[in-house]
UniProtKB/TrEMBL annotation:
NCBIfam families attached to this UniProt entry: pheT_arch (TIGR00471)
Classification via CDD domains: PheRS_beta_core
HAMAP family the record matches: Phe_tRNA_synth_beta2
EC number(s) on file: 6.1.1.20
Gene behind the chain: pheT
Protein name (database record): Phenylalanine--tRNA ligase beta subunit
Record organism: Thermococcus camini
Domain of life: Archaea
UniProt domain B5: residue ranges: 305-380
Length: 595
C-alpha cells in the first residue's frame, strides 16, 4: 500500500482549518488512510500517511487527502468543479510508437505558486502513481516540465538510439543508449524499452528535448522549482484510459494549489512524424486547420474531466449497511463523498469525479456511504446464530496441488480473472472455437460496461495470463518456471447464471532450452501423485508449434492441453525465450480420499 509523508501545516492550509494530532488520526479515515507515524522536524509536524486503497491514486497526496476531508466535513458538497480552458497547444504522436509506447496525454497548469512542501507533494504523487498504479512505469509514466521553457507545438516521436540530450541530474549530453546504461533511472527502467527499435522522445518545435519516456526528463525543461509558475504535464503508457486517469489525478491535485487547468490537443496519426510534418503549414493556426481535413487521424482533447455516472438502489444501501437511513440522509452522505446525487424512483443516479476509476459495483458506493457515516459510529452487534465452520474439501485439494507444484521448484503466481478478447484469442492466434480442449470455448463472458478495455471479459483459459506475467518479467533472470491454480469462467446455459467457474492448473516454463518433454515430465509426475493415468493425443493448435502439442485425456475425457508455445504467440507477447506450457481442469482429478 502507498505510504507518503505530509506536513500538518500544509494539510491544514489546504483544508482551511487546524486540528489536533488526535483529530487528524480520525480525519485520515475519510481519505481511506491511516496515520502511520507522527514526528517533528525543524519545528514542523509531519505525518506518514498509509493509504489503504490501491485503486484511489487521487488520495495519494496532501491535495487529495485535504480535498476529501473538506467534503467529508461538509465544507463543500457534490461534485468538485474544475474548469478546463483551451491552451491552443498541440502534441503530435508518432505512429512508429504504436508497438513501443503508443499513448501520450497532456495538459498545462498555469498560475502555480509552489513552495518546497508543494513541490514535495507533486513529486511524491508523480512517483507513487507511476510506481503503484502505473506498475513501475510500465503502464503509466509521468513527466512534469517548466512550460515557460517549452516552444509548442510538441512532438512525441520515435527517436534513433544515437540521438542525444542532457538528462536530469547530469551536465553533459548523452546518447539515448548511454542514458539506459549510465543513468540511475536508465538502469532501473531501461528494460521497458531497451529491446525496441526506437526509443520514445518528447521534443518541442525547436527540437529541444523534454523527456525520454518512461525513463528520465531533460535537465533543461524537466526541473521544476519554486520559481516555476506554469507546468506542462506528460503521461505515457499502453492503456489510453489508464494514462487519462493518471493525468486527471495530477492536474486536479495541482488545481487544488490554485493552478488553472488548460487542455492540449493530441493528434494520433497513421503515418510517421516526418510525413506528418511535411503535411503541415508553417504556423500553428494553419496546422490546426490542416488537421481537421485529415480524416485518418485521431484528435483528442486532454485532460477530459467529464464526470462519470453510476446508479444504485437505495434499498440495497439500506439493507447492507443495517443502518436506519432515509433517502435524504443517503444523498447527504454521498454528496460528502463528492458525488452529484439525483434521487429517482428509489434509485440514486450518481455522477462522480473523473479522477476516480474505482466505482465498478454498488458495493463501492456503499463503502463511500459508510466512510462518510463513520465506521466508528456504527454499533457492532453479536451474531444471533451459532454456526460451526469447516474447510471446503476441494479448496484443500487445490492447496495440496499448489504444494505439489512448489515441490517441483515452480513459483506460484496469482493473475486476474478479468482479461480481454485480444489476450485470450488474438495474441494466441485463435478464433473462438467449439472444442474447449483444443480451443477456448465459443465465447467469452464479457462485461457489458467495462471500466477499461483491458478488463472487459472473464478468462476461459489461464495460459495467456501466464504469458502476460512472463512478458512483464523479461528483464528478470531465467529460467522462469511458474504456475497458477486459478479460475476460468465458462458459458453454461443449463445454469441459472448461464456460467460456471472452473478451477484449473496452468504451468509455464521459460528458458533457452525448454522443450515439450520438460513440461510433460512435470505433468507426468502430477498425474502420478494424484493417482490418475492419462493419455496424450496429438492435436493441431494455433497457439502451439505444429507437432508439439497434445490433448490431455483422463478416463476417455479431454481435460487439458500441453505444448510448446508458437513463436508468433511469443512475439505477440514480447517474449524472446521459448516457452512450454500445459493447462488442465482440476475438478476431474479431485478425489477426497487423496487428502
Amino acid at each position: 500500500m502507498p505510504k507518503f509523508d505530509v506536513s500538518k501545516r500544509d494539510l491544514e492550509r489546504l483544508v482551511g482549518k487546524t486540528f489536533t494530532v488526535e483529530e487528524w488520526e480520525d480525519l485520515f479515515l475519510y481519505a481511506k488512510c491511516e496515520l502511520d507515524d507522527v514526528w517533528e522536524e525543524d519545528g514542523e509536524i509531519y505525518f506518514k500517511a498509509d493509504s489503504k486503497d490501491t485503486n484511489r491514486p487521487d488520495l495519494w497526496s496532501a491535495e487529495g487527502i485535504a480535498r476529501q476531508i473538506r467534503w467529508a466535513l461538509g465544507f463543500e458538497s457534490g461534485l468538485p468543479g474544475y474548469k478546463v480552458e483551451d491552451s491552443g497547444v498541440t502534441v503530435y504522436v508518432d505512429g512508429k510508437l504504436k508497438n513501443i509506447r503508443p499513448y501520450g496525454v497532456y495538459a498545462i497548469v498555469e498560475g502555480l505558486n509552489l513552495d518546497e512542501e508543494a513541490l514535495k507533494q507533486m513529486i511524491n504523487l508523480q512517483e507513487k502513481v507511476a510506481l503503484t498504479f502505473g506498475r513501475r512505469r510500465r503502464e503509466v509514466a509521468i513527466g512534469i516540465f517548466d512550460f515557460d521553457k517549452v516552444k509548442p507545438p510538441i512532438y512525441y516521436r520515435a527517436a534513433e538510439k544515437s540521438e542525444k540530450f542532457v538528462p536530469l541530474g547530469f551536465e553533459e549530453e548523452m546518447t539515448l543508449e548511454e542514458i539506459l546504461e549510465k543513468h540511475e533511472k536508465g538502469r532501473e527502467y531501461g528494460h521497458l524499452i531497451k529491446d525496441k527499435p526506437y526509443y520514445p522522445l518528447l521534443v518541442d518545435s525547436e527540437g529541444k528535448v523534454l523527456s525520454m519516456p518512461p525513463i528520465i526528463n531533460s535537465e533543461i525543461t524537466g526541473r521544476v522549482t519554486p520559481e516555476t509558475r506554469n507546468v506542462f504535464i506528460d503521461v505515457t503508457g499502453w492503456d489510453l484510459n489508464k494514462v487519462m486517469l493518471a493525468l486527471n489525478v495530477v492536474v486536479t491535485a495541482l488545481a487544488e494549489r490554485g493552478g488553472k487547468i488548460k487542455s492540449v490537443e493530441v493528434v494520433y496519426p497513421d503515418m510517421d512524424i516526418n510525413e506528418l510534418v511535411s503535411y503541415l503549414a508553417p504556423d500553428v493556426e494553419d496546422k490546426l486547420r490542416t488537421i481537421e481535413k485529415l480524416t485518418d487521424w485521431l484528435v483528442i482533447e486532454t485532460p477530459d474531466l467529464t464526470p462519470k455516472s453510476f446508479k444504485v438502489e437505495l434499498d440495497y444501501i439500506k439493507r447492507l449497511t443495517g443502518l436506519e437511513l432515509s433517502d435524504e440522509e443517503i444523498k447527504d452522505l454521498l454528496e460528502r463523498m463528492m458525488y452529484d446525487v439525483k434521487l429517482v424512483d428509489g434509485k440514486a443516479n450518481l455522477l462522480y469525479p473523473a479522477f476516480r476509476d474505482d466505482i465498478m459495483h454498488a458495493r463501492d458506493v456503499l463503502e463511500d456511504v459508510l466512510i462518510a457515516y463513520g465506521y466508528n459510529e456504527i454499533e457492532p452487534e453479536e451474531p444471533k446464530l451459532a454456526v460451526q465452520g469447516r474447510g471446503d474439501k476441494f479448496i484443500e485439494f487445490e492447496d495440496a496441488v499448489r504444494e505439489l507444484m512448489v515441490g517441483y521448484g515452480l513459483q506460484e503466481v496469482m493473475t486476474f480473472n478479468l482479461t480481454n478478447r485480444e489476450s485470450q484469442y488474438g495474441k494466441m492466434l485463435l478464433e473462438p472455437g467449439e472444442d474447449r480442449f483444443s480451443h477456448p470455448p465459443a465465447e467469452l463472458v464479457e462485461i457489458e460496461n467495462p471500466i477499461s478495455p483491458k478488463w472487459s471479459a472473464l478468462r476461459v483459459w489461464l495460459i495467456p495470463s501466464l504469458l502476460d506475467f512472463l512478458s512483464q518479467n523479461t528483464h528478470e533472470e531465467y529460467p522462469q518456471r511458474i504456475f497458477e491454480v486459478g479460475k476460468a469462467t465458462l458459458i453454461d446455459e443449463s445454469r441459472e447464471t448461464k456460467t460456471v467457474s472452473e478451477s484449473k492448473l496452468a504451468v509455464a516454463l521459460a528458458h533457452p532450452r525448454v522443450t515439450f518433454t520438460e513440461a510433460k515430465e512435470i505433468l507426468e509426475s502430477v498425474m502420478h501423485h494424484l493417482g490418475f493415468r492419462y493419455e496424450l493425443e496429438g492435436i493441431d493448435h494455433p497457439s502451439f508449434i505444429p507437432g508439439r502439442a497434445g490433448k490431455i485425456v483422463v478416463e476417455g475425457k479431454p481435460i487439458g492441453i500441453i505444448g510448446e508455445v508458437h513463436p508468433a504467440v511469443l512475439e505477440n507477447w514480447g517474449i524472446e525465450m521459448p516457452v512450454a506450457a500445459f493447462e488442465m481442469f482440476l475438478r476431474p482429478l479431485y478425489r477426497a480420499p487423496y487428502l
